[in-house]
C-alpha cells in the first residue's frame, strides 16, 4: 500500500503563517471566470475560503459563456489599474474562441500571482521573478515536506500545459534535475512512464495513467484535475496505483490545496517585492 502524500496538511501550515503576516493594506484577490465549469467552480470556492482565512478580500467576477473577449480583457485591465485590487487570477480554461494569452497579458506584472502573463512567465523562466508558479511551487514543497529526494532521480513529466507541466519542467531545469517530458499523445507513453522514479502528471484526463504504466517504488505526483462521472479525479488510476507504487498524491487533497496556499503566498509576496 502506497504512502499518501497529502497536500492539505502542508497548506494548513502555509495559511497559518500567512494569517500572521501584516500587510500595508487589506489585500484583495480578484478572480475572473468565463462560463461555467464544475471543476473551476469548486476550485474558485476553495480559493475564496482560503483567502478569507488569511484575511484577504475575495472578489469573483463571473461572465456568461457568450461574453466577448474584448469585454473580459477590459475588465481585467480595469482591475489591473485599481488600487483596491492586489492580485488577479483568470480562471482557466477560457472559451476556445478566446486568445487566452491576450487575456492573461492584460494582468500587470505586480498583480500576476498565477505567473501566467508573458512578462511574468518570461521572468520566471530566466530566474528573475521573486515568486514561483503556484502548482510548480506546490510540487516542490510537497516533495521537500515528505523528504523525497529528486536529485539523481529520473523524473517524468506528463503534460506541458501552462498551469502544471511547463512550469514544473522549467523548475526542474533550474534545479538541474534529470527529466523526460511527454504528453498524452506521446507514442508508447507507457514505455516512458515506466522509467520514472518520480512521475508528475498534469494533463487533466481521468485515468490516463494506469497502474500497469508505472513501476514499483515510483513516487506519483498527480496534479491533474477533472470530473469522472461527477467525481473529482486525477490523471492516474488511483485505486489500482495505490496498491503498487511507493507514494502517491490523492485527488482531491494532494497538490490542489497546496497550490491555492502557494497562490495566496504569492499575493503577500508581490506586495513586498513588486509594488
Automatic annotation (TrEMBL):
Residues the record lists as binding NADP(+): 159-161, 225
Keyword Protease: no
InterPro entries in alphabetical order: Aminoacid_DH-like_N_sf (IPR046346), NAD(P)-bd_dom_sf (IPR036291), THF_DH/CycHdrlase (IPR000672), THF_DH/CycHdrlase_cat_dom (IPR020630), THF_DH/CycHdrlase_NAD-bd_dom (IPR020631)
Stretches of the chain forming a coiled coil according to its record: none
GO BP: L-histidine biosynthetic process; methionine biosynthetic process; purine nucleotide biosynthetic process; tetrahydrofolate interconversion
EC number: 1.5.1.5, 3.5.4.9
Keywords on record: Amino-acid biosynthesis, Histidine biosynthesis, Hydrolase, Methionine biosynthesis, Multifunctional enzyme, NADP, One-carbon metabolism, Oxidoreductase, Purine biosynthesis
Location of the Tetrahydrofolate dehydrogenase/cyclohydrolase catalytic domain: 7-114
Location of the Tetrahydrofolate dehydrogenase/cyclohydrolase NAD(P)-binding domain: 133-271
Pfam families referenced in this protein's UniProt entry, alphabetically: THF_DHG_CYH (PF00763), THF_DHG_CYH_C (PF02882)
Cellular component, GO, one term: cytosol
Pathway(s): One-carbon metabolism; tetrahydrofolate interconversion
Cross-referenced SUPFAM superfamilies: Aminoacid dehydrogenase-like, N-terminal domain (SSF53223), NAD(P)-binding Rossmann-fold domains (SSF51735)
Catalyzed reactions: (6R)-5,10-methylene-5,6,7,8-tetrahydrofolate + NADP(+) = (6R)-5,10-methenyltetrahydrofolate + NADPH; (6R)-5,10-methenyltetrahydrofolate + H2O = (6R)-10-formyltetrahydrofolate + H(+)
GO MF entries: methenyltetrahydrofolate cyclohydrolase activity; methylenetetrahydrofolate dehydrogenase (NADP+) activity
Family named by the database record: Belongs to the tetrahydrofolate dehydrogenase/cyclohydrolase family.
HAMAP family per the UniProt record, alphabetical: THF_DHG_CYH (MF_01576)
Function: Catalyzes the oxidation of 5,10-methylenetetrahydrofolate to 5,10-methenyltetrahydrofolate and then the hydrolysis of 5,10-methenyltetrahydrofolate to 10-formyltetrahydrofolate.
Subunit: Homodimer.
UniProt protein name: Bifunctional protein FolD
Amino acid at each position: 500500500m502506497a504512502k499518501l502524500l497529502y497536500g492539505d496538511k502542508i497548506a494548513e501550515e502555509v495559511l497559518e503563517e500567512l494569517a500572521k503576516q501584516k500587510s500595508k493594506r487589506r489585500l484583495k484577490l480578484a478572480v475572473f471566470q468565463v462560463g461555467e465549469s464544475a471543476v473551476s467552480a469548486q476550485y474558485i470556492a476553495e480559493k475564496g475560503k482560503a483567502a478569507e482565512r488569511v484575511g484577504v478580500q475575495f472578489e469573483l467576477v463571473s461572465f456568461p459563456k457568450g461574453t466577448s473577449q474584448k469585454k473580459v480583457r477590459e475588465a481585467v485591465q480595469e482591475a489591473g489599474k485599481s488600487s483596491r485590487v492586489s492580485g488577479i487570477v483568470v480562471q482557466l480554461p477560457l472559451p476556445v474562441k478566446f486568445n487566452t494569452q491576450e487575456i492573461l497579458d492584460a494582468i500587470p506584472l505586480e498583480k500576476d500571482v498565477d505567473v501566467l502573463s508573458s512578462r511574468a512567465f518570461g521572468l520566471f523562466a530566466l530566474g528573475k521573478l521573486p515568486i514561483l508558479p503556484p502548482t510548480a511551487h506546490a510540487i516542490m514543497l510537497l516533495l521537500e515536506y515528505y523528504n523525497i529526494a529528486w536529485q539523481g532521480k529520473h523524473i517524468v513529466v506528463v503534460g506541458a500545459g501552462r498551469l502544471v507541466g511547463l512550469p514544473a519542467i522549467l523548475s526542474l531545469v533550474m534545479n538541474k534535475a534529470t527529466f523526460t517530458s511527454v504528453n498524452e499523445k506521446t507514442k508508447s507513453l507507457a514505455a516512458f512512464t515506466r522509467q520514472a522514479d518520480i512521475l508528475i502528471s498534469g494533463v487533466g484526463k481521468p485515468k490516463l495513467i494506469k497502474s500497469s504504466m508505472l513501476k514499483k517504488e515510483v513516487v506519483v505526483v498527480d496534479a491533474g484535475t477533472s470530473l469522472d462521472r461527477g467525481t473529482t479525479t486525477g490523471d492516474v488510476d488511483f485505486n489500482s496505483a495505490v496498491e503498487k507504487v511507493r507514494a502517491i498524491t490523492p485527488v482531491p487533497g494532494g497538490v490542489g490545496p497546496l497550490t491555492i496556499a502557494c497562490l495566496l503566498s504569492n499575493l503577500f509576496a508581490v506586495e513586498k517585492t513588486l509594488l
